[in-house]
User: Which sequence fits this backbone?
């Protein structure tokens, strides 16, 4: 076995009364990709954020190459040889690509207080070229690039100085296949150079393929460290959940006939620059899937059905002929929508779970003269939070304190509470662990059986295949193909019409 | 077309349009080359203050004590120059140091009290006004004619150009500039990059204060005297530098915030002097100027569809 790079010793961290990490200890070695897995709220990100100075741990030590480190921020962590690529956007608007790459490390370009922009740009351009990201220019403002390219800038920023440990925190969910390949290449390079990658991902096949060693956390506890070559997906699931993941993960039925009754009809819908001439019908009790590359326009289809698109042309009508042209009409007519960008578009972050759940149901909960009852709201929120088995202290807890999966449960609880008949779910399981995923799939199946109709937009092809009665594949803003539910269908059939 | 070229074309378009409108309305007493030069000279005052205030505004903070700062700095500078007999040295150093102290106090109370900058600076403005009034002894402070070189060409232009160059260097060639944009973009990430956010916020107020100090020198030199008003009357001085700063923020996306502030202030002055040439009553001038502000900011600030504006 190679030498120990990082010793995690008795690390604990609490947020209020929530114990996010409980006396966690394990070792990470040189020249390995070490995956960190666990359900949402298991403590993976808390651990890496403590290692990289984003959080301060309550107790315990991190020993890097025999020396204890306690960075107070990312730059100090960088100086110790530890860097991180975060899940969401980590670059800053208003700065150039080069300024983003060297943020916090500008001193080497500063002489007598004056920054040598040319030298900084030159070096950044050299780095971008070395990484094969020539199309990104150091002197350009970073906001001129799309999410994916900005992630590539982050990869350069986190790795150019040859850190001993690079933490990659659920970055792959935000990337297309091309971006992922780029990231994998860099992970392999870091490993070959004898350095270490700590890799956090919910995608178990990806974890098994990319990592050498896997450490499992559950509810803040250290569970086990295993060799990737000695375990399979089911074994990992068992370690993560603490029991055998039994029953059907996806729906098990095939060949059930979907009702002929159309509940929503979308005709010739165009949103300039995003989608073009989209036409389809959604039937009662149907799960209709939309797949494609991230930029294929499928996410806009969801917005268009909810009346949330700008400059939309064409029509979206319900069975009774009601046109859906704006969000209030959509909600009034029992349409629900969960956005891919959960934190910014679905959740009111600095409000309580209760406030979030009751939001679209306030009219229903109103008493005489429109007065709201505290008790009624609490009972309502409690009922639906419990139905989604949301992990929380009480419904008065702020949503910002919840893990990603539990936030998603709050979003879904809101729409179940509103008793919506048509649900437009955009990436409902994005960044969510298998246990919550399974809960969501089962919920969708129950809803389908009770006559609710669901539009499921997803970048995960397997869940589309497993859950949908019909899959529409989008390409360049248009419908590229439509496939019925079929037990023989595999990912390749879908990929062929996506690219 | 590059962003900068587009930005300059829009600004030059605004200059030509605003000049053209008033030239048609009042062809004889407005808009000759000589007139334009004097409008430009007048616009330099506020432009200097605005380039400093830009550091504060880009970070997402606000300052309602701009007017009080200018007033206090001008009075202290004048007192140093005349009562203490320190001449130009006293005028410049007195005003700039006072401006910086005011900036330091604004920044210090803002980061320590953790309440919105708008409220902190409004509260402090009342105090600065009272201090200015006390120093002036309630009497109008006049700068003698032998100390007014910065009120006319070329003194005013030289001082303003020095100020613009310093602002340009600070913004583009120092860490302060990079951190200003980083904090304005996402304070949390900036903090994680090891940036001492509070320190740089205080620094932004100090820089802003220094430039407002220079504006104070130009203002008292141009107008020859300063009255220490109280009861928030100094607020009226906030308007023009703030408006120029809006130009800077709006044209940031074209990569030319400072030229936008300078040309923007020129446009504001063309409109202002245009109304004077027309003989429009003050109330009408205020209405039109207010509308012009809304129109300019609306046209130049491109809000993405769906973006939330607060």
Assistant:
């Amino acid at each position: 076995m190679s030498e120990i790079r990082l010793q995690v010793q008795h690390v604990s961290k609490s947020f209020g009364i929530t114990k996010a990490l409980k006396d966690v200890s394990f070792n990470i070695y040189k020249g390995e990709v070490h995956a960190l897995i666990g359900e949402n709220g298991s403590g993976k990100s808390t651990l890496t954020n403590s290692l990289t100075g984003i959080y301060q741990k309550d107790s315990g030590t991190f020993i890097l190459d025999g020396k204890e480190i306690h960075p107070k921020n990312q730059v100090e962590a960088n100086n110790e040889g530890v860097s991180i690529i975060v899940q969401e956007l980590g670059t800053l608007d208003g700065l150039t690509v080069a300024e983003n790459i060297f943020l916090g490390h500008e001193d080497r370009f500063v002489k007598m207080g004056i920054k040598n922009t040319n030298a900084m740009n030159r070096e950044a351009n050299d780095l971008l070229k070395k990484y094969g990201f020539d199309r990104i220019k150091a002197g350009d403002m970073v906001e001129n690039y799309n999410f994916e390219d900005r992630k590539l800038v982050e990869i350069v920023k986190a790795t150019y100085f040859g850190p001993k440990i690079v933490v990659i925190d659920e970055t792959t969910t935000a990337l297309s296949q091309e971006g992922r390949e780029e990231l994998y290449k860099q992970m392999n390079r870091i490993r070959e150079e004898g350095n270490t990658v700590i890799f956090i991902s919910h995608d178990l096949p990806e974890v098994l393929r990319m990592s050498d060693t896997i450490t499992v956390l559950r509810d803040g506890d250290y569970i086990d460290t295993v060799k990737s070559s000695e375990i399979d997906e089911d074994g990992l699931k068992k370690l993560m959940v603490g029991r055998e993941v039994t029953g059907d993960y996806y729906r098990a039925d095939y060949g059930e006939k979907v009702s002929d009754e159309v509940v929503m009809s979308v005709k010739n819908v165009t949103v300039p620059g995003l989608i073009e001439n989209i036409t389809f019908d959604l039937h009662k009790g149907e799960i209709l899937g939309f797949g494609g590359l991230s930029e294929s326009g499928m996410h806009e289809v969801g917005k268009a059905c909810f009346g949330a698109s700008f400059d939309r042309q064409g029509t979206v009508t319900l069975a009774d002929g009601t046109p859906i042209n704006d969000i209030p009409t959509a909600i009034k007519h029992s349409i629900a929508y969960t956005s891919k960008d959960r934190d910014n578009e679905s959740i009111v972050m600095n409000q309580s779970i209760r406030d979030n759940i009751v939001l679209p149901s306030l009219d229903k909960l109103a008493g005489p003269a429109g007065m709201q009852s505290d008790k009624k709201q609490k009972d309502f929120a409690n009922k639906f939070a419990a139905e989604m088995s949301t992990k929380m202290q009480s419904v008065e807890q702020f949503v910002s304190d919840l893990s990603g999966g539990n936030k998603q449960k709050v979003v879904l609880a809101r729409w179940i509470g509103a008793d919506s008949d048509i649900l437009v779910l955009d990436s409902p399981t994005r960044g969510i662990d298998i246990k919550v995923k399974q809960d969501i799939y089962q919920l969708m199946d129950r809803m389908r059986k009770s006559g609710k109709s669901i539009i499921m937009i997803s970048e995960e092809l397997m869940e589309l295949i497993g859950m949908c009665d019909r899959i529409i594949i989008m390409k360049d803003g248009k419908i590229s193909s439509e496939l019925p539910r079929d037990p023989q269908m595999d990912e390749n059939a879908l990929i062929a019409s996506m690219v | 077309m590059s962003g900068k070229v587009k930005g300059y074309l829009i600004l030059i378009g605004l200059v030509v349009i605003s000049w053209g409108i008033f030239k048609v309305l009042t062809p004889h007493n407005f808009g000759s080359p000589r007139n334009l030069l004097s409008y430009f000279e007048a616009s330099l005052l506020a432009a200097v203050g605005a380039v400093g205030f830009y550091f504060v505004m880009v970070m997402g903070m606000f300052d309602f004590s701009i007017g009080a700062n200018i007033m206090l700095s001008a009075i202290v500078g004048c007192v140093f120059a005349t009562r203490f007999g320190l001449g130009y040295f006293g005028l410049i150093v007195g005003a700039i140091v006072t401006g910086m102290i005011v900036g330091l106090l604004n920044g210090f109370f803002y980061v320590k009290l953790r309440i919105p900058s708008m409220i902190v600076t409004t509260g402090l403005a009342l105090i600065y006004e009272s201090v200015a009034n006390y120093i002036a002894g309630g009497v109008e402070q006049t700068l003698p004619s032998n100390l007014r070189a910065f009120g006319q060409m070329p003194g005013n232009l030289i001082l303003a150009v020095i100020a613009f160059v310093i602002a340009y260097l600070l913004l583009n060639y120092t860490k302060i500039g990079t951190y200003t944009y980083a904090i304005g973009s996402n304070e949390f990430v900036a903090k994680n990059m090891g940036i001492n956010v509070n320190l740089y916020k205080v620094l932004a107020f100090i820089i802003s204060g220094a430039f407002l100090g220079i504006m104070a020198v130009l203002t008292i030199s141009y107008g020859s005297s300063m009255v220490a008003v109280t009861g928030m009357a100094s607020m009226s001085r906030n308007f023009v530098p703030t408006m120029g700063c809006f130009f800077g923020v709006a044209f940031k996306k074209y990569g030319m915030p400072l030229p936008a502030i300078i040309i923007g202030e020129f446009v504001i002055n063309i409109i202002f002097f245009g109304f004077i040439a027309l003989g429009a009553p003050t109330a009408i001038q205020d209405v039109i100027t207010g509308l012009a502000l809304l129109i300019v900011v609306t046209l130049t600030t491109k809000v993405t569809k769906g973006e939330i504006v607060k």
